[in-house]
User: Fold these one by one.
Assistant:
Number 1:
Amino acid sequence: KYALTDDMIIPQEAAKFTNVTLKGTASSMDSNSTQAFNLMIASKELPDIVGGKRQDIIKYGQEGAFIPLNDLIEEYAPDIKKLLDENPDVKGAITAEDGNIYQIPFMFADLVSEGYFIRQDWLDKVGMEVPATVDELHDVLKAFLDQDANGNGKRDEIGYFTRVSVEDRNKLGGLLPLFGINDYWHLNKEGKVAIGLYTPEYKEAVKNISQWYAEGLIDPEIFTRGANARDILFPENNGGLIHDWIPSTSGYNKSVPAKVPGFKLTGMLPPTDINGDQWEFASRDKIDGAGWAISSQNKYPEESMKYMNFWFTETGRRLKTYGIEGVTYNMVDGKPVYTDEILNSDQAINTQIMDMGGMIEDMAYYHDASYEEFAMDEEGKRTVELYKSSGVVNKCYPKLPALGFTDEENDLILAKYPACRTYMLEQLQKWTFDGSMIDQQFDGYMQTLKDMGMDEVVNAYQTAYDRLMGVK
Ligand code: CA
């Protein structure tokens, strides 16, 4: 919980550039920020600037608690305006139904998030290269098993495994893309909104999944494995392939070799899928809902907007991410590098900077992910660069941006979709274990989902997406 306090040096430094000094009004004792926000609204005593979730800001903005920012952005926030012009999907997402913008959003600059990692030491053991296609990956995982890659004399190598929770995506959501299926809401090749488990192409994909499972190339406990999967399977020398967050996964190269001599994970690009396409399904969302707003009681909206814009300038971004030159970072070859004190601390870099009033998402700014390089080993850095430079992220089947639904759309989705999703996941699990009846059952599966209202759900997403993109 980060409440702004007077001793935070980053807002103090910002005052030198902006002549604006912030005074925090939220208490660090408020452990529940939603409750604190609601209490503040109810009190009718609003501070000049309020941080909060977009849907709350929009709701109370339309009721008059916050002012529309459109004209202020136009006149006093050139850097925010430029960014919104360059990202029409973000601009659409933050625009309320009444056409007004009430919140300046926290934004991510860099969208690379997750990637594939494979055991380099196992590849060396079986004498194979990093797989470039889905077929090569199949053969590699089979070789891990057939050739006792972990050398314990047992046929126990686990190929693909995951720690993702079904709330995020299904347990096979990292493998299905290799068969042309994106389990996130996305745009298909015709530019239409779709979700992978409700497409005709899913039939061949789930057959392949079932086949791989039968061959032992997928974790037998894939559906029940928990969030600590990496902490168990890597030190046990028993996990071969994962799709996960790049910085944290590459970190196992540091911790595991002490237990498993020679342990090494290599980051690899997504193998080309069964259609010959190479694409990465996971990405960061450009916005996550956090940001700040100007209250209707603020007597200085113009100055407030200029202040907000400061955090989107290069100077503001550096201050927000790296702190103060000579104190928390130094410039080395034209780039900011944290001081040894920051780098060698027991605390994470972002925690230290947040304690100084930087990197707080409710105080909207344009995030600079370059700081993550300092938290990553060489393999992590190499992998991020691989995903960036190859342009695979959001290619082929791009993930939908954050959508704003009308109440009607929202009600429909909540009424129909959860049951559809449950049915999809149950069927995926059944077919993974036994794919012998997929040909006979698939049409019935699609019809059942149609009967449950899946077309209406897809339509609600399509309408919300069209509205976002300004399609009439
Ligand atoms: Ca073995």
Number 2:
Amino acid sequence: MVSRVIPVDPFDLVIFGATGDLARRKIFPGLYRRFRDGQMPEEARIIGAARSEMDDFGFRKQVAAALDEFVPASRRDEASVVDFLERVGYVAIDATGTGGWDALAARMRKETVHAFYFSVGPSLFGALAERLQSHGIADPNSRIVVEKPFGRDLASAQELNATLAEHFEERQIYRIDHYLGKETVQNLMAVRFANILFEPLWNARHIDHVQITVAETVGVGGRGGYYDKSGAMRDMVQNHLMQLLCLIAMEPPYRFDPDAVRDEKLKVIRALEPVGSEDIVRGQYLGHRRKDGTSVNSYLEDVGNPASICESFIALKVNIANWRWKGTPFYLRTGKKLRARASEIAVIFKEPPHSIFGEDESWSPNVLTIRLQPNEGMNMTVMIKEPGPGGMRLTEVPLDMSFAEALGEDGTDIPDAYERLIMDVIRGNQTLFMRGDEVEAAWAWTDPIIAGWEAREDKPRKYDAGSSGPEDALMLLHRDGRRWREIRE
Ligand code: NAP
């Protein structure tokens, strides 16, 4: 299959926080892959910036090491790495200081797209935005890319938006939610809006419920300090799960255009009903001792706070108050140290109105599964006659569409979300980035939910590491006569 790639203009991309974890693991490896695939213009330049003092040569060595570590050997070759590194430079800058800005200004070329990736903590966004303008480095066509977390509640998100708006227009601000850069997530829009098949069924009359699961096997790791002030609701639901819910629930936009798509997502967020305490289950993982004598830390040990009541797991039943979805709940769950690393959306359809086959125990509903990781792809189950002479018995078969097969490749060439999103920044396409009002609306829905459990001083339920979460999360669906899909890779 010949891939059609929308060309990218020559650019100067400045990465603030270039020595950090995200830059090493995602940004530079992603940029290299795009370069190696010939999808970056010859004239592209990438300038790293952070406080550490070093020259271009020293920084290139760091980038080379990151590529060694994070790009599989089969996807990398010496010649293209050398070529790529020639396009990489470095300027030492303290976001809150005065040094280094003139040196950066001198490196920026005229007639190129200027993009600035803020891969630093949000407390530095304002200082960076201000200095880019006051030193004449940004121009009206410049873009800034900001990382999550975008605030920790509505007030802080509004403050961040206001700070950025002092220096850049909304059309210049790219708020990253890397879930939106995933191939499957975009395919969800293609499947919904480029086929006649689904739209007539895509509503509460035909869809029983929707499940969105983002399960991780890792704990909070080295991020314990940050995570314990945030929790699963702020870290995952307010942004990633909310975005997935929007793509499932939104009305067809009139065009695949950034504001048309984001307007429709915003309407969904505004239609979300408040969630009462009976529809929320929060959890915290327990530790245990393995047979070999080593031990798995509990959440409390991982964050070093024995009194923490922050959640490492959350499940919620969410209702959308509009004509399309009234009566069809969306069940969301996400957590750490669960049994498998698996992210998927499952759309569970209703029973046919009447079964001409009578009671058949093997009947099960049609399910459309959109798999984000691992093995990105979609799958639709349908009922057919069980093959053979055994009479009219029903059996379920999958109509599988894993992208690796559909693209005729081994799957590893599906671009990483970050590489796709960075190229969209250069192309000036904001469709897959969150708009300021969207982020604020998401916090406006999230804030009272969190305030509710804080006021009640709810403690999270304990769950075993390696399980599917607390028992009560199962009950959330059982009491509605439903059950969660198994979490499996
Ligand atoms: P990190 O590893 O702590 O790196 C922070 C970077 O910022 C370093 O390059 C640091 O370099 C630089 N820096 C710190 N203070 C600075 C200052 N005053 N002026 C200029 N540079 C400064 O953080 P990270 O994990 O890469 O995360 C970066 C951002 O991405 C954060 O907002 C984080 O929430 C977000 N994020 C990260 C991940 C991830 O997987 N890591 C995922 C999603 C979102 P110097 O010390 O040399 O200045």
Number 3:
Amino acid sequence: MLGLMQDFPLIIPRLLTYAEKFHRHTEIVSRRLEGDIHRYTIGDMGRRSRQLANALARLGVEPGQVVGTIAWNGYRHMELYYALPGSQALYHTINPRLSSQQLSYVISHAEDQYIFVEAMFVPLLENVLKDIPAVKGFVVLCDEDAMPDTSLPNAHCYETLLAAESDDYQWQDFDENTAAGICYTSGTTGNPKGVVYSHRALILQAMNSAIHMEITARDSVLPIVPMFHVNGWTLPYTALVMGIKLVLPGKDLDGASVFELLDAEKVSFSAGVPTVWQMLFDHLEESGQKLPYLNKIVIGGSAAARSMLETFRDKYDVEPLHAWGMTETSSIGSTPTMTSHVACQGEEAIMRSKMTQGRGIFGAELKIVGEDGAELPMDGKSAGTLCIRGWAVSSAYLKAESNKEFTEDGWFDTGDLATLNEYGYLQLTDRAKDMIKSGGEWISSIDLENAASGHPDLAAAAVIGIHHPKWEERPLLVVVLKPGHSLDKTSVLQYLEGKVAKWWLPDDIVTADALPLGATGKVQKNELREQFKSYSFPGV
Ligand code: AMP
């Protein structure tokens, strides 16, 4: 027997229609490329999304077709997030920091019909034009007077395109499992892999994120995590579910620019990778400014160091929330929201729980498996490969030749190594390809660099494994010094003592001007390994 509930599909146009009706006065604030601040409401966004849907139809974009976006977080990108899936096309968010070869690969592989591109990224496309012959045209996300001279064929100005259209457009209903968007994962080897999100997954995940990141309708939310990466952790959708004020930072993610928005827009909640928080700390330290409005921040994408969590809590009175997720999980998959069992054990237990990647959220079931594929006990000690399944987890990559990461019984192998304890807290020990094996025992490069990054002279730290004739591999600590500091190896080693096992201490410490960062601010370990491929430890 079926339930007697109404058939109400979980699809993005239903969310937009709802938000236009009930949250139409809620503000969306964007810092534009031009540098000025743009303000409008969810009502305005709904109207312009309907104009955009008409423009897409005029361009000949059909249901099931893919349209690329190369854009920062801003109101025009929001309109694309709604109008493309709303008209049953797919957005393909493209990371502007891909190499030319990867850029033309993902555009061709996803079969992008058009590309909507920020004016500053037009040269990227001009550069690969001959390798993307199937793209029918380009739309530059700018005002008419900012339209650049370009060799891109069939290039339109976004505002001119919209101005010609009426806002009379009727969103249709369709199957909630219809594809809504695509995002490629960087992949350390081979070509990037396409993850295809469904409407159902995005809507469920948008609601789930609000619950698990503890966002309320009173919040003013600044997603620093880019909308070209993992749906901006679905915050562009969560905002319309809840009627939250959104503040979209555009291209300027340096500490001063982020602080300016946090302060001026009274932002109470923000989300980003550790690198952006470090840049904010540096700015605050220099300027002596505080964060009076910010209540909570989510740190994800890379492990949050204890020193970062403590600085937020103790120095700025901001509650840090750690989160784990992947491109393949639509947005967050786990987070250590506070339980009464932890809260009653006091500050140290709370801090220790915050340093874990948290508990799997409902709809994202986790398990740890050993080398034989058998599930390991939830004892906080047995480390193995983290596997996940759920309503917002990929079941396959787009047009992939091999889908070895997906098991026949419906699990996705994350490539992360982790433990789970009896309360369901997940602790990542490393990425499978990023462990250092010394004398047959594993060293966690994540733990080592987290411990080192708290040293007062260091702006950033990363650990890679270097070949060692006796131990196979030993850790090399690569550090970026804070301005005006010099490297004191003894001091760093003494700082690490007691924080990590003695045999984990790095065999050498070297400085770098900067660490190679990916588009989302994560250290690119493969690039770092490449940089140090001819390095050998002193005396070895
Ligand atoms: P991506 O698909 O680019 O978002 O990368 C996902 C990967 O980033 C995960 O598989 C983890 O290896 C890593 N990651 C994400 N969040 C965290 C976290 N909180 N702590 C440690 N690693 C993380």
Number 4:
Amino acid sequence: MAIKLNEKYLKGFVTEAELDEVKADTAKAIKSIAARDGEGNDYLGWIDLPVNYDKDEFAAIKKAAEKIKNSCDIFVVIGIGGSYLGARAAIEFIKSPLYNNMKKDTPDIYFAGNGLSGTALEELLAICEGKDICVNVISKSGTTTEPAIAFRVFRDLLEKKYGEQGAKERIFATTDKAKGSLKTLATEKGYQTFVVPDDVGGRYSVLTAVGLLPIAVAGCDIDALMKGAADAREAYNGKVGTDCERYAIIRNCLHRKGKDIEILACYQSFFTMTAEWWKQLYGESEGKDGKGIYPASVIFSTDLHSMGQMIQEGKRNIFETVVDIKNTGASVTVPSDEANLDGLGFIAGQSLDSVNFKAFQATALAHCDGGVPNIVLELDEKSEYDFGYMVYFFEMACAISGYTLGVNPFNQPGVESYKKNMYALLGKPGAENEARRAELLARLEG
Ligand code: PA5
């Protein structure tokens, strides 16, 4: 069991009777997920992914990763949202946020197409100058504007640098098996393609080729990652009374008692992108129909010096979920210094991780005193196995929570609104776009 829920810092915030009131709903949700009879049940492919995945494609991912490792200095991963966050989270968690700066025999990895900043794209192009490049373009729909623009830029670069045939050997497309412009383009150009299964939504897709190819290129053990997820599936799928259900119960109970914001906190900077992945998972899954717990994140103790004041004494509508990673593998200690001019002699010889743990305990107690309940999720270690386990834990808890909240946790209709406006303002052809454009321009000019 890689994750253990610790309720020490919830005392006085929720009673067992209050939790019991939510339990009936989570039990119903678990049953519905297992029976696949709830809303959005055509997107439940993630449940069995850790065991029921395409083994041939998995082998092809490993082979492609080796080819990429051997043929480039820079690997550019193009994608947005669920087509980018999981891979980046895994690489930063398992390897390091400083992965590109570390001594290694794998390529540097940069992420592109996750926004529309010309500055970001220009900077990356400058970094790529004179380097050998491979590209993985990832889009389930195959029609998303941000990655499509970045891919157009990189395709042009690679074709000019290596010729059509050479570029074809360096471009890998991960998309739908049959539909979308990316699929059409990949078929036309003859790129090696990987499939995003129909029944797996973007934010649940890290354990498909979407996440696995970049993660494998970074030199991570994707077998161990899948094993962690498979063990979590064994522990949680269809089961009541687990820590996964308990997390869903507690967060829903706190929400019913007026806590509208959940802050995911971790005391490790390598967790920053995992928190971003988690925010998308919970934000897109729960935020609809006027409902939802707003997912926020902090990295402590860093953010105690920026957001700490707000958490300690601001509006009391928040709770924290702290991921406490037990074994990071770090061994650096506070050096001894006889002169002790900085006054740190009292912690000389202690490991940074033990000082960090004291900071966590101190903060949890202070935040409880300030009226902020803390759910603690203890994760054994910084490893591929634990990352895979944690991914499944959060995905299952999110599905349970969504149903408990009374929403469909597998759609994201609201994401379309900005896209429709943007297409209209950019002058995309089509009667609907044109009508909207006139209306939007009138509002902007009014
Ligand atoms: O979870 C989701 O479905 C979204 O965040 C998508 O992953 C994101 O919009 C990117 O979509 P696509 O992979 O189709 O380009």
